[in-house]
Design goal:
single chain, 31% helix, alpha/beta, binds inosine 5'-triphosphate, globular, Maf protein
């Protein structure tokens, strides 16, 4: 069986491949299939995940799995949330997460110490079939933010996120440790449970 992984984000692709690996399904990345990046016009993680999976399934005629995710910060009323990738973009549209993490820290400083540093990651995974069916699953992981960034593992905002009950940032953890507790792993667990019923 073949599954299109409808993401252009290499960090996500690496993690999704690792989650899917035990199931013996061949994964095809959106970049290797030269799929376009649909405009993310949705107002929720699930809505954006669904439109990405639907577009890929329609274009390829294969089942497609997409991921829409982001970091929501309590003190910033949930920002950057669904705009997490956009916070990293400069005027030319290039992504720099060093810059995004700095922006987060500036916003936290401006909010003041009483606003706290609590945050969570959300991941919506959508599975779309060529026949029009779609199913979506969501996972979250709660923690707090540190600065400066620590660790070179993972991707995106991982170097500033410390999950509850742990000392290391996601950026300092081995991939296996992140997979044991991440928002993406939790959403994937829901998906597997749904497939099994
Ligand atoms: P696709 O739409 O092609 O999948 P994208 O990077 O544009 O790729 P999103 O719109 O979902 O994807 O952006 C989510 C951003 O949130 C992503 O670029 C990361 O910076 C951040 N993010 C999501 N999951 C993360 C994780 O596990 N660790 C760190 N940052 C994460």
């Amino acid at each position: 069986p073949k599954l299109v992984i409808a993401t252009h984000n290499e960090g996500k692709l690496r993690e999704i491949r690792a989650l899917v690996a035990p199931f013996g399904i061949e994964c095809l990345g959106a970049a290797e299939l030269d799929l376009p990046e649909p405009e993310e016009t949705g107002t929720s993680f699930v809505a954006n995940a669904e439109l990405k999976a639907r577009a890929a399934a329609d274009l390829t005629g294969l089942p497609a799995l997409s991921d829409d995710s982001g970091l929501s910060i309590d003190a910033l009323n949930g920002d950057p949330g669904i705009h997490s990738a956009r916070w990293a973009e400069d005027e030319a549209g290039n992504r720099d997460f060093g810059r995004a993490m700095q922006k987060v820290e500036q916003a936290l400083q401006a909010a003041g110490p009483e606003a706290g540093r609590d945050a969570h990651f959300t991941c919506a995974l959508s599975l779309a079939w060529p026949d029009g069916r779609t199913e979506s699953f969501e996972g979250k992981v709660f923690g707090h933010l540190v600065y400066p960034p620590r660790g070179a593992n993972g991707f995106g905002y991982d170097p500033i996120f410390v999950p509850h009950g742990h000392e290391k940032t996601f950026g300092e953890m081995e991939p296996e440790a992140k997979h044991a507790m991440s928002h993406r792993a939790k959403a994937f667990e829901q998906l597997v449970q749904w497939l099994a019923t």
